[in-house]
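Predicting holo structure, adenosine-5'-triphosphate bound.
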Amino acid sequence: METETRRSAHSVLRFENLSVRFSGRRSVVTVVRGVDLVLRPASVHALVGESGAGKTVSAKAVLGLLPRSAETGGRILYHDADLLSLSDRSLRAIRGKRITMVFQQPDKHLNPSMRIGAQVAEVLRYHNGLGRHEALLEARGLLDMVELNGREVLRAFPHELSGGMKQRVAIASAIACRPEVLIADEPTTALDASIQAQILALLDRVRHELGTAILFISHDLPLVRGFADDVSVLYAGRIVEQAASRELFECASHPYTDRLIAATPDPARRGQRLAAIPGGVPDPEEMPAGCAFAPRCPMATDLCRRELPLLRVPAGTLQRLSACHFAEDVACGSLADG
Ligand SMILES: Nc1ncnc2c1ncn2[C@@H]1O[C@H](COP(=O)(O)OP(=O)(O)OP(=O)(O)O)[C@@H](O)[C@H]1O
Ligand SMILES: [Mg+2]
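Done. Tokens:
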């Protein structure tokens, strides 16, 4: 499914035909379907798409955080190791150290009854075997690095900090062991617009100073446009378009991407959830036979309703991929008023 160009690209993390299914009491639903993705060292790869597209499930698959009811297929390669087939023990050595994650709600991952310093230090003690004093000293440096007052925040409890400060603490913990990969799942969605920009600037610094590659999950296209190098657009569990951010935002090759971009034209509306495309994402239990976007697509024909379009390089392009039968006919912004 990947092009040769993308296959040969140097990567720290690579999804190969990733699939995730959930088995319930009555049925099995597939929510991630054949996702291929390359995260290049020190780059930002954004995963975008509407609610339910499979962004968080894909991210959790990397870290082995899916519930037992999930069944995975394909491979997630971290260098040469397939994370999906590693033992729990091997995965624990990587998770939180080499590959880490920052979530939308920093609260969920902070212990309310423990001082911030001890929480950040704990990561260093567990993964790097530092002693208590040494770990606290390094934690203070990390808090300074994320632009908090390390000396003061070290002694604070989570409830004494604002949302933006807590997200900075989460980032400090996530970068404590200088990871190669940081997965940030909507890290700024819960924050005020001015704080969002600061957190993003911080993540950008982490990428440049530590060389950490970032898998950036977001609803916010203007934010993605300014931050990501590569973008994968996910629709109903499949990648429908994948391209360098610059190319993708210049001109989409999939009607869904085109509609997404048209739906958020104004950077002042940053932070809003994408909602302006009529219709909804299909129920994973009732996926159409052909293209999952066909019921909402102004370009759809019988072919689209019948045959699943494969991800391919559209004629006249080199590096981008689109899963549309009519990728060549998607003209920039042409569908905006459709
Ligand atoms: N534990 C679970 N059991 C069954 N289905 C699940 C489970 N977790 C997620 N799903 C389903 O998987 C699909 C993808 O969910 P996911 O959380 O990855 O979406 P998302 O793209 O992150 O959306 P959002 O933007 O709302 O965060 C959804 O249909 C969701 O209902
Ligand atoms: Mg999510």
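The chain has a mean pLDDT of 90.
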